[in-house]
Each structure stands twice: as C-alpha cells, then as structure tokens.
Amino acid sequence: MNLITERRFVVSVIFLAVGVIFLLRLFYIQVIDRSYKLSANNNVLRSITEYPARGVLYDRNGKLLVYNQPVYDLMIIPKQVHMQDTAEFCALLGITSYDYINKFIKAKNYSRVKPSIFEKQLSPETYATLQEKLYKYPGFYVESRTLRKYLSPVSAQLFGYVGEVDSSVIAKNSYYREGDYIGKSGIEQSYENVLRGKRGVRIVMMDALNREKGSFENGRYDSAAVSGDNLTLTLDAELQEYGELLMQNKTGGIVAIDPQSGEILACISTPTYDPNLLVGRERTKNYAKLLVDRSKPLFNRALMAYYPPGSTFKLINDLIGLQEGVLHPSTTYYCDGGYHMGNHTVKCDERHNWLSLSDAIMHSCNTYHCYVFRSIIDQNKFATTEEGFTDWRNHVLTFGIGKRLFSDLPQELKGNVPSVEYYDKYFGKGKWKSSTVVSLSIGQGELGITPLQMANTMCIISNKGFFYVPHIVKKISDKQNPDTNFYGKNFTDINTAYYDMIIEGMERVVESGTAAASKIEGITVCGKTGTAQNPHGKDHSLFVGFAPKENPKIAIGIMVENGGWGASWAAPIASLMIEKYLNRIVLRTELEKRMKEGVIIMPFKPEKEKPAEKKDTVKVVASTTLDTNP
User: Fold this and answer.
1) What percent of the chain is modeled with pLDDT above 70?
2) Better-scored residue on pLDDT, 203 or 492
C-alpha cells in the first residue's frame, strides 16, 4: 500500500467515525433522550386536561341543593415563557410582581417542560379579560374546571367540602394528579368515587403566537371527560333549613330519620357556617378562620359528638329489664325523692311515691329506674356482678350504641358503653357492684351517645325491635342506592312484645308528662325528655321521640348543649320539627318564635391549668350525690 492509499484510508476512517458518532448521537436524541422531542412537541402540541363536571346534589323532593359554577386555572410551561410586560400581566391577574416571581420559581422547580397551575380558580370575568391578551404571553394557557356552588347556606357539615389533593393521596391513588380536587368531608368524601366523574384530555396544535390552531389529527388521541353521577339525597331540604333556623344561637345536634326506611331527613349541627366560604380562592383563608373558631363550626356534633343520654336512656334500661324478666308493667317501686345506697343518694326531682312502669316513664323517675338497673345486674342467675353487667351491656350494644351504625357518612363515631375491663381498671377486679355504677341507669356516668344514635334508638322502638342502617343518599343517577347494607332489618335482642309497654309510657310523656308543653294538636307523639349532667356548665337538654304513634313517619334525637331540662329547649324544637315535617306548616307560632329567638350559647372561659392527674369521673359518679332532672 503506497502513501496516497494510506492517507485515503485514514481520511475514510475519520469520516466514517464522525458519521457513526453523529448517527449514534441522533439515535440518542430521537430514541433514548425524549426531552428534545418533548420540548418540540410542547412548542407545537398542547395536551389540555378536560375536567369533568362534579355530580350535583338534590334533596328527596327533587330540589337542587349543590351545583357547579365554571372557573379557570391559568397553566404555565416555564420553558416557553417569554415575558415582555410583567406589570400588565400581573395587573390582569390582580397579583404583585413578587407573587409572579414566586409562582414562576415554584412552577420551574416542578418542571421546566411540564405544565402546572400558575394561578388557580380565575373568575369568568378575569378569564374573559385575560383571554383577549393571552397571545402576548407564550407559555401560558387556560384550563377550565368547575367549583361547587350552594343555593342555601345550610347543611355545611353534612355536604362537606372539596379541596386540592395532597401528596399522600396522590401516592395512594394513581387516578389523582397535582392540582386535582377531592371530597374532604361529608357527602363529598363518602361518595367521591361517583361524584368526581372521569377526567378527559384534548390535544391541540398551537402557533408561534400561543394561539390554538385546531385539534391534533382531528381529535384521534382525545378522550372526552365523563361527568360525575348526580345524587338524590334522603334529606328534606325544607326540614333541614327549618331545624337550623330553630337552632341558631345554640350549640348542639339534631338527627331526624324515617324509621320505615332508615333515610336521614335532617342532620343538623350548630354552630355552623356558610358552605360557600370553603369554595374558590378564599377557601384556604376562610378554612383557617373556621379552624380556630372556638365554637368549632367545622365539627359535626350530630355524628361526632357523644353525650350522656340522660333520662332518654331509661327506655333502653326498661326494655332490658322486661327482656330479663325482672320488670313487668305492674312492677312498682316507691320513690321518696331518691334512690339510696348506703350513705349516698341518687336524687329524683320530686317525691313520686309508688309508681308503675308507665308512671315512671311519664314522670322520668330516677329512683324507679335505679331499682330496675339493680334488679337486672343482681339477678340470682349471675354468679358475679361482672357477669350481670356484661349481660346488660350486650343488650345495650344491640341498639347500635357503643359501635358504628355504618351509615354512609364518614365522620360517624360509635359512642361509648363502658365495659367490665374499664371498671376493673378503676375499682379493681371484684371491688365494684351494681350500686357503684347505678348512674348508668339514668343515662349518666360513662355512657356516650351521638344524636344519630339517639334518633336510631327511636327508629328501633317505633318499629318494635329493628332498624334500617341510617343513610343519606337515596339515588345515584336516578337509580336506587345500590348498597344492600341499607335495606336489611337489624334486630335487637329484645322481644317485640315488650315495646308496646314502653311506647305507652312515651305517649304519656307528651300527653301529660314532662313534655306536655310540646304537644301537637292532631298528632300523637311518643317521646322522652332528658337532662344530661355537664361538669363544665349548665346541663344539656335532650329529647327523643317519634310520630305519629301508629305507622310512624319521623324519629328524632336532639341535644341542646347547656339547655337545662329536656322540656325547656330540646322537646319544643323537636316537636316543631315533627309538626313541620308531617303538616308542612307550623301553627304554634308563639312557641316557634321563642325557639328561633332563644340564645343559649355559653360564653367561653379562659382555660384553667390542667391538674397533674386525670380526674377519675367514674369514682366521682359512684361517691357523690346525683341530681338529674327529666
């Protein structure tokens, strides 16, 4: 090989090597490293998320309660941004240049080439102004979505609210992405999967001036958004609004249920708030204010607060006595003003003398029901107090107290029925007797029941032994709620025959007993008042009942904090709601006016320094004199 041939060979090898290097680099850029392709596509194509309309809510009568209103999110792709006039841009959005810089840095840190939200929830007016000049700001575009709108400022805790997903939700559920919204509480949370719908996508071509030039390949790669399912609630909007009006300037909870189906007619918690406060760009600021509000408007007392049931619990205690065979309609006990156990006394509001079962319910006699409780626990068939108490407790649990009812509302708590283990821990095993915990018989001590459970107990008594699981959604997209859990009967372990004896006493409570002032002309109401001791202030006012007596249509449980006797506030408010639901009009206008205008909210006191050790509430109940009014 001569010199010329060698030089040609070397040059050929060099050119070949350079060519191979270019080919490998081109292969890497086009096949392996997709960032250049992504950047090029983002300059020509844009993937726009199509957010579905969230399902709307109707009440049981077809009245629209919650719907959607359009808003717009301003999106940014940092790599494409070429800002010419920052001042004008900020003026259009109503933000400062400082805000602009922070938002841009945040978007850039997320991704230089992927879109993210720059400014969320622009109003239609802002969007209309911005859209005319958006071509001047490459790298920015708008995605439309919807936000909740409430026709009436009621049912806030029941509906719940919608908020932006956090990283923990995204990590657990692949459907959600940054910027998506999800139900955070209430119905919005319980039925998120059916309300949210299905997200779609639209791929469009853009020109150099950031203007849309049409769909890519005639929409071949697009997918349509699917709207969420509409829900028809069991709620009676008129009754709900009326109940909240009666409970204004009061603290407490009310639940009303149709005992023949378990459908929740009203679920009220006060103090409350306007649900529209937790919508839109002011949501975060408003939520922070509500969160520190000492009246706790975000707290759903109807489902999450459990209170001592007071005298309303006497009905369950009596049913257990009847079932155990230690109590009969003719059983009498003498009341001299209290139930005595050694040197201690459970006081009664007056001296009732000799009483039968029906009389004891009508007059809400503490003495009588303490005797009934003792007769249940201390039966000869039980070898120990613990055995008798366990039998009593197991009966109570069948009423849905001390455990969840498994309604379709996520905040529901189970309440509390103390156990043998609980008392053994405080008093020592074998060192307590029926007289030690006799306050349970009149709904005091460690018992805790939610207003939902109070109302459900009335469903059980009105149905003479069974209940349907309480629920708030009647239909999903015009089809019956598919959850079969809501349609089966749940029975207590009390014989059906015994309920008539209790119902007779409840009728007398309203006709001529402790709730006589709340009697409704033309409607036979069966009820029971209660007063729950409150160590932090004035006692709580309670009432449970159902109506009419035959073929009942509504069962109700109500707690008014610091309301005193059950007959003072709880019974009148409950009776007005019953009248409103059954007659659709209230004729007792003077009583209605008094309840609406009544103010019972207790002033907040400075918190005192807590003692070093927790106060033993069980021992206090057992060793002090109780004074529980009906």
Assistant:
1) 90
2) 492
Distance CA(578)–CA(584), nearest Å, equals 9
Domain count, the chain: 2
Q: What is the DSSP letter of 29?
A: I
Residues 248 and 213 in one domain: no
Structure tokens at 381: 């068939």
Say if CB 355 and CB 365 are below 8 A apart: yes
Select from 203, 620, 185, 210 the least CA-distant residue to 411.
Answer: 185
Predicted pLDDT at 352: 95
Q: Quick one: pLDDT at residue 609? A: 47
Closest C-alpha among 314, 306, 307 to residue 339: 314
For the ranges 28-42, 83-97, 207-221, 312-326, the maximum mean pLDDT occurs at: 312-326
Return the percentage of the chain with pLDDT > 90, whole number. 67
Nearest alpha carbon to residue 235 among 304, 301, 155, 297: 155
Bigger pLDDT: 133 vs 36:
133
Q: Is 182 helix (H, G, I), strand (E, B) or coil?
A: strand
571, 582 in Cβ contact below 8 A?
A: no
Contacts of residue 504, Cβ cutoff 8 Å, sequence gap at least 6: 358
* Residue 625: predicted pLDDT: 33
Pairwise pLDDT comparison (628 vs 314), residue with the higher score? 314
What is the Cα gyration radius of the chain? 33
Query: Can you give the pLDDT at residue 177?
Result: 87
Measured distance CA(323)–CA(211) in Å, rounded? 78
CATH (domain of 130)? 3.90.1310.10
Q: Under a CB-based contact definition with an 8 Å cutoff, are residues 267 and 577 in contact?
A: no
Residue 572 and residue 591 in contact, taking contact as beta carbons nearer than 8 Å: yes
Dist. CA 444–CA 462, nearest whole Å = 24
Which of left, alpha, beta for 217 (phi over 0: left; psi -120 to 50: alpha)?
left
d(CA 439, CA 532) in angstroms, rounded, equals 11
Confidence of residue 179 (pLDDT cuts 50, 70, 90): confident
What angle (nearest 5°) sits at the alpha carbon of residue 348, between those of residues 305 and 366?
60
> 260: helix, coil or strand?
coil
Within 10 A of 580 (CB to CB), how many other CB atoms are there? Answer: 21
Q: Are residues 526 and 595 in the same domain?
A: yes
Pairing, β 140-150 against β 64-76: antiparallel
Examine residue 503 and state whether it is found in any structural domain, yes or no: yes
Instruction: Please give the Cα distance from 234 to 241 (Å, whole number).
Output: 14
* Tokens at 88, concatenated: 């004008």
Q: How far apart are CA 331 and CA 325, in angstroms?
A: 11
CB within 8 Å of 287: residues ≥ 6 apart: 277, 278
Same domain? 173 vs 53: yes
First-to-final CA distance of the chain: 121
Instruction: Give the residues across from 47 on adjacent strands.
Output: 203
**What does the mean pLDDT of the chain come to?**
89
pLDDT of 113 higher than 90: no
Kindly state whether residues 242 and 224 are assigned to the same domain. Answer: no
Q: Are 417 and 440 in contact, with CB atoms under 8 Å apart? A: no
Answer yes or no: do 158 and 216 share one domain: yes
